[in-house]
Amino acid sequence: MAEVTLLQTRGLTRRFGGLTAVDRVDFTLMQGEIRAIIGPNGAGKSTFVGLLSGRIAPDAGTVLFDGQDITRLPAHRRVRLGIAYTFQITNIYPAMTVRENLAVAAQSRLAHEAEIAAAAQEAAIAVGLEDRLPDRAGALSYGHQRLLEVAMGLALHPKLLILDEPTQGLSDDEIDNFLTVVRRVAQTATVLLIEHNMDVVMALATAITVLDRGRILAEGPPEAIARDPAVQDAYLGSAT
Amino acid sequence: MRNLRLFALTIAVLAGLFGVQFVISGYPVLALTRILILAVFAMGYNVLMGYTGLVSLGHALFFAAGLYGAGLAAYYGGVALPIAFAAGIAAAAVLSLVVGLLALRTQTVSFMIVTLMFAQAGYLATLHFSAITGGDQGLSLPAHARSFSLLGQEIALTSATARYNIALAVFAVVLLALYALTQGPRGRLFAAVRENPERTRMLGYDVGRIRLLAFTVSGTISGVAGALYGLMFGFIGSSFAEFRSSVEVLLFTLVGGPGTLFGPLVGTTVMTLLIDRLSGLTSAYLIAVGVLLIVLTLWFPKGILGTIRDRWAPWLR
Questions:
Q1: From A96's CA, which of A52, A137, A198, A203 has a CA 20 to 30 Å away?
Q2: Is the residue at B32 inside a domain?
Q3: Which residues form the ABC transporter domain (chain A) (predicted)?
Q4: A122 reaches B (C-beta below 8 A)
């Protein structure tokens, strides 16, 4: 695949009162990557992806997506352009069925009920939830709810899928299954994930960005990041 | 994912309502006519409260907009009844769009208060301009506004049968339109906004616009009911714009089952019959209504059809 820039930020900044959560970040994401963003608690990871998805407005800087300046675009319009976001805390429609959850996502880009139903089915198969389509989403296990949320992201057919701590609270078996799902997703979409579990990061990521106190501390392939003394000092050292 | 069982029920209910007029006569026909019109009001309310999850305390305003829009057009404009009817609906549509734009800046309790304030302003306006509206004395529509011609046939609204069938026809149109709206993709979006607005936004939807659509549809249908009520019974008065109307429509919807297609009809039927009976027994019937409201909120928050839906019939929605 040719190296095409999918997403780029320049001088992206967000302050909360006296705290600068994201500080003049220049960030580039290539099409087809699985990029992990790591960093200690409070490093600004969630704020940063919030700025990308449009859930949070920046104080300064620009966000370019697919060659277009989306800095002022509201979140729902960014989703339509192809940026899907899955929440850190599971965020589904518990009272609706799995099928309906996926249909709401799919009808964001499709008009006909038959197409919507087919897309819902396809997304369920992609994460292995096809047997649960008629079930109430709230009745699913936690791990399945997380998969449903990823499937809702997939039903959007995004160019970029942002996963905010997707494996938090999952068992080891569920994490294995999750890795398979993400690898499959990555064949058609670029993936940006915030992740605390270093095993997951090392297994999945093609590149890693380390955030610390709102700035990019280091960036590069997983092996190089793991060896970086500054990273070990700021993050890996304190975590293990 | 259309809901065929619900559609079959819709047709059966409409057929039943058409047939029942050959069985009953006298006062029950009048009562049922009223129930059908008020059920349309509740169905409009249900679009916003039941399907989209926004509780308004000001829907008397939109009922009154239809009532006065149609009534004043007939009274002063002397226009034919179908045109007066359309004028009432248009008034409610415009007013609900404008009020929706303003009120939807707020949520939950503030939204209830803001809608209530708008409705109170509307009610006070009907009193203030009593030289035109007749205030709480109201206006009785003149003889020319008690009949109209349809396809060359003269239809007199003094006939109970004519009134019943017109009310039923309007009820049927609204019911079928709401079936199409709520059981398809649009209805799923309303439910998505009700269940989880933030998730819905992050799936690419402008939640504010979906709410505004629901609000406007809801207010317009309430106006349909108001316009129909005024023209059918030939009377418009400010008592219809009172807070009590807003509470009653909330109560009808709650009793029947918010977010179910037939909840408003069931709730309106049960409550109107109950209020009829109770007010014959005691002038303090509102106390009984209040107690019922408390009981419902505590033990049956989903209403009659909502409870049945959750226990036995998930398609009943």
A1: A52
A2: yes
A3: 7-238
A4: no
